[in-house]
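A favour, since you know our structure tokens better than I do. What I am after is a single protein written out in full by you. Could you add the entry underneath, on a fresh line?


***
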Amino acid sequence: MLQSSSVAILSPEAIAAASRSADKLSLQNLQSKMKCDPESYEAELELIYKQFQSSLELFQQQAALSFNSLSGIGADPTVAKDLGERAMFLAHMTQFYPKHLSDFPKQLADLLRTTAKSLPSSLRCQIAQALILLINRKIVAIGETLALFMELQTLGDRTLRKLAYSHIVRFIQRMNKKHKDEAKNKPLQNVLFQMLQREEESIAKRSLVTLCDLHRRKVWSDDRTVNAICMACFHPSSRIMIAALSFLLDFEKIQDDDDSDAPTSEDEASTQQPHVILSREEVYKAHHKGTTASKKKKKAKLQRVIRSMKRQQRLDSEKTGPNYYSPLTKLKDPQGFGEKLFSRLQSCNERFEVKMMMLKVIARTIGLHQLILLNFYPFLQKYVQPHQRDVTNLLAAAVQACHDMVPPDAVEPLFKQIVNQFVHDRSRTEAIAVGLNVVREICLRMPLLMTEDLLQDLVLYKKSNEKAVSSAARSLITLFRELCPSLLVKKDRGRPTDPKARPKAYGEVNVAIDVPGAELLHQDDPDADDASDLESDGLSGSKGVVSDDEAGVDYSGDGNSMANSGGEDDMRNEDRAETEDEDEDEDGSMSGEESGEDEDSGDDEVDDKEELYSASESDNGDIKDDHKGEARKRKFADFDQQLDAANTSLRALKKLTAAKLEQSTEADDHIYSNEDFQRIKELQAKTKARTALTQHGLLKGSGSKSAAIKIPSSDQLSLKPVDPSKLEAHIRTKMTKEQRVALMKAGREERGEYKSRTAIKQNKKGGKSNRQKERNKVLPIAAKRAKVAKSKQEKKRKQMRSGKQFRGKKAWK
């Protein structure tokens, strides 16, 4: 049997029998000719197909006999080589002979499925390449061979693993390039999901790597893929769990220990580039200094720098901007996921790094979806110590897990332990700074945790000699100037935007009753500007009330409300208003007794004050004669005086009710056009730009201080991850001499070596300058005498001028 099968080779006699040239043809030449004329070479195709089958049978018999080295007979390498060459040849010809080679793709797949482990590495790669060629030409469906190629990656052959992995990823990427076809994607996803749930670590690992790569390339970014990756956190194998956790945390490429697709050190070095700083001097030099060629080079370098800055800014905005994306946002059951992962964290015996990864994922899930997991905060307490390993990452996870939907009583023990362990006089400077920064970040999310006594104790660290501690304490003061200035001592309050601001109570929600940004449109309106001018003079009517409400002025003490345009003028007269209020307490009490019987409407005191304040503005016709000059001077800064004036007038209350009814109907019936919404977007962009310029100190004006601090909303805080490095103390220290020299040399990269003018002239290439030529120029005798006489006259003039100079005598004698 072996001898008969080995005789069947492509010989010149066989070709001559088929009425062809008797010259010996290689498979490549025959392949090119058969593609040009397929019908004329059917006999050769059948002959080569029979040779492939005989070689396959011969190889299978050799594998069954399994010759070893003791018998002196080994596997014939020529048989494997011939089998691989004929397999590739037939794979190229299957497209032109579909009827003759209908069983060929199935034979290749069965060969890889049954004897892939025993095949030589070169033959295995050739057969895999032949099968990939058939899939790319759509002769074989990818769904039939996906499981086979996933299993081929687990054989330990690095070349084959790279070939099969790249084929799967690129084919699915090409399939979804124009549009995503769910009918084709769903069967492939089901195959990978089933492999991911298998207990075999190797096949589950390769399926997880494939899913993560496709999700990172935004090919499969649907909810099913994300939830399958998240469910890998509960896999029995710890390596699969660690890979899934690292993907969810960093959203970066999973680096396997033995994976050839992992990024090299050169790729990492290329991605970690320092931030590029562009100065005005460089821009000026690129456009105004130097020759045309040098300007061209400088402009090209400037464009490269600008592109680098834009790329860095884009990467930073993708990581930390409001459009930050995390796979955890697409969880179907985030509460169940967090509870299940937390229960595994409590019962697992993994190393500390793995527990930290699980802590971060749980905290990130709690922050993103605003979950309530009350047992998580006591679990963190046993790790909150200054000497704990990776304590900043632990504290960042604690900050991330805090949001306004968590009851303050559940977080209060953890909060107190952070203060007691980190912020005390015997603690190190770094620990105090980290503790104050963590307290600030937690209070930004849950302001109700802070008490007045604790805040005043923490604020005292502003007098510390350490820059890190004092800056952290001042940042805490700045935060509570906006959140709740009443908790601060009077000298630490400064000039807050809203002196009556208070944090929201637990469960309190602000409900929007108008179009967001509509107040900017009314402020930009020229009619509104005229009304504001009249209001500043104390002569505005009900329009002033409307503009105040639209501008978001809230006298109930909401922490998110902003002050109106006259807030700074009111603060300037704060001390004077307090003294006058003390003098008028008796008169105010008398008026309060007279009007007490008329004010039994059931509203609270804060709402009455707000209504009466607006009523005093709407009833300027009654009190204009008595208080016109004082209203112009103080711009309604004295709130209690206006309250007394309104209390004495019952007619003011009636007008107030009518004005409020008209105001509510006007606000409800107003319809904004597309131009209004476009204008609102433009004004919001201008406001953000003005705030950014103010924060960087590039904008100075009357309203710069009020716009310098902007407290983000709870949604923005939950979406943005907490950076542990920002909790540490980063104080700019004095640079050493080596650092200054390195910084100086960094700006002289394009400069050449320093040379004196003499050295440059000596090394100058080309002819002499005009001045050098004049020195060596041969002149006639008359010209030489004239030149000497001219120099003598010039010398004499200098002597005469120097003789008339002041020699020390007094000029007036």
Remarks:
- The first helix runs from residue 2 to 7.
- The chain has 41 helices and no strands.
- The mean pLDDT is 74.
- The CA atoms of residues 516 and 680 lie 9 Å apart.
